[in-house]
Amino acid sequence: MALHFELVTPEKLVRSGEVYQVVVPGTEGDFGVLAGHAPFMATVRDGELAVYADERSQPDMIRIEGGFAEVNEKGLTVLAEKAE
Amino acid sequence: MASLKALKGRIDSVKSTQKITKAMQMVAAAKLKRAQNAAEAGRPYAERLEKVVASLASKVTISSTTPKLLSGTGKDQVHLFVVATSDKGLAGAFNANIARLARRRADALIKQGKTVKFYCIGKKGRAVLNRLYPGQIVKSVEPGDLGKLSFADAHAWAEDLVERFDAGEFDVAHLFYSHFQSVLVQDPTQQQIIPVKVPEDATAPQGTAAIEYEPDEEGILADLLPRNVAVQIFRAMRENAASEQGSKMTAMDNATRNAGDLIKRLNIEYNRKRQAAITTELVEIISGAEAL
């Protein structure tokens, strides 16, 4: 089962697609999101988002600044002011 | 009566004007495409943020600790109008429409005894408002080329606004801009940005599972609300950029067509005059020959 992941900035939709796992730098600590994660909302600190395309692959690092993450039944959405 | 030479000169000058308006139209068309893409690219973010803020706001009960950006100051005496226009004209009624809407709303509020202040983005809006409401402009900024605005600019204005709000300079802020519907239709729009307006039908997100928050709802709100102001302004600027180019394109298209009509009319006049001159000359020659 794949996790639907979207990374959006005010300027554009940076990424949208199915991934295995995303590790988000939350204000109160990093957290990993897999498919089927419980509904969750958190603010994000400036840092790097690690996107794992599948179980074994190396993570894709995306630098983000300011924003928040929302997990709902549809997947994970990260709203950042700046990305990469 | 204009001489043939003067007519010829006029035709040439209208022709060169037409060339210019034609070129401006094509430039606007190219820029419109870009501005339109940018406006559309920015929509998902703004929409999602709006949704999240609305769902959060519907959950938080208003108390003294609620962020002021959400609950408001409890008054609505002083209104701040953030009027976003452009720095340059030659875009049809684009600037005039936004200014007119702002003026109408301002007059209505003033009639009710409220105070209205203005925060101008763009030279064109400032010119009108300064004449009608002298001394009511608290600040005006010049955005330059609307298409090249970055989120950082909008963010800086939003910060300034929030600071003024915290300092108690105003109670309610409205944003005026032109919503881009299509090349032909741009709606001047008013939107309340401070305090955040929660749509009436805002309900908690569907699904029975409780959402976990980190930090708590109010912590997230305190972080999101100022950002929301920036995002709304940024979106408005993007919409404005697209609207300005759309409006400019239409205006320049009309100008080009008008110039074409004018050229046609002048050409007819020119040809008639030339014909008349030739006829007169012929009559002179013939009558001269007969007299001999």
Automatic annotation (TrEMBL), chain A:
Record Pfam families: ATP-synt_DE_N
Record's bilayer topology term: Peripheral membrane protein
Membrane listed as a keyword: yes
Keyword set includes Secreted: no
GO terms for cellular component: endomembrane system; plasma membrane; proton-transporting ATP synthase complex
Cell compartments where the protein resides: Cell membrane; Endomembrane system
GO MF annotations in UniProt: ATP binding; proton-transporting ATP synthase activity, rotational mechanism
Keyword line: ATP synthesis, Cell membrane, CF(1), Hydrogen ion transport, Ion transport, Membrane, Transport
Record domain ATP synthase F1 complex delta/epsilon subunit N-terminal: where: 3-83
InterPro entries: ATP_synth_F1_dsu/esu, ATP_synth_F1_dsu/esu_N, ATPsynth_dsu/esu_N
Function, as annotated: Produces ATP from ADP in the presence of a proton gradient across the membrane.
Complex formation: F-type ATPases have 2 components, CF(1) - the catalytic core - and CF(0) - the membrane proton channel. CF(1) has five subunits: alpha(3), beta(3), gamma(1), delta(1), epsilon(1). CF(0) has three main subunits: a, b and c.
PANTHER family (alphabetical): ATP SYNTHASE DELTA/EPSILON CHAIN, ATP SYNTHASE EPSILON CHAIN, CHLOROPLASTIC
Family under the similarity heading: Belongs to the ATPase epsilon chain family.
Protein name: ATP synthase epsilon chain
Organism of derivation: Stakelama pacifica
Upper lineage: Bacteria, Pseudomonadati, Pseudomonadota, Alphaproteobacteria, Sphingomonadales
Automatic annotation (TrEMBL), chain B:
Protein's UniProt keywords contain Transport: yes
Keyword match Zinc: no
InterPro entries in the cross-refs: ATP_synth_F1_ATPase_gsu (IPR035968), ATP_synth_F1_gsu (IPR000131), ATP_synth_F1_gsu_CS (IPR023632)
GO cellular component entries: plasma membrane; proton-transporting ATP synthase complex; thylakoid
Gene3D superfamilies listed in its UniProt record: 3.40.1380.10, ATP synthase, gamma subunit, helix hairpin domain (1.10.287.80)
Gene Ontology molecular function: ATP binding; proton-transporting ATP synthase activity, rotational mechanism
Pfam families according to UniProt: ATP-synt (PF00231)
PROSITE patterns in alphabetical order: ATPASE_GAMMA (PS00153)
Topology relative to the membrane: Peripheral membrane protein
Primary site of residence: membrane
Spans through the membrane: none
UniProt protein name: ATP synthase gamma chain
Protein species of origin: Stakelama pacifica
